[in-house]
Amino acid sequence: MQYSEDLRRRVVKYVRQGKSKAEAARQFGVSRPTIYEWLALGDNLSSQKPGPKKAYKLDWVSLRAGVDKQPEKMITEWAKEFGVVPGTIHYAMHQMRLSRKKSVAV
User: Measuring CA to CA, which of 1, 23, 84, 101 is 20 to 30 A from 53?
Assistant: First the structure.
């Protein structure tokens, strides 16, 4: 459940006036851990949507060119280079029908 910004501000103000967190929890009907979180936020009490902050786009052309040049590179290394998670690299390579060719160490 998401609480309104007005309620958040009233609860924080109530606690900062010297009242206890337990008393504020009973008074406003919120849990004490929630009050602790709001106090930790400082003045930024506006509600924020959870989730990714921006969409990541993987440049498949660059990935294909890189894999052709350096087939020994691991998926985790490609992921760090492109700034995505390894699953994204795996998915893209699978869609492009690319497989990592490994040479056997002698």
Answer: 1
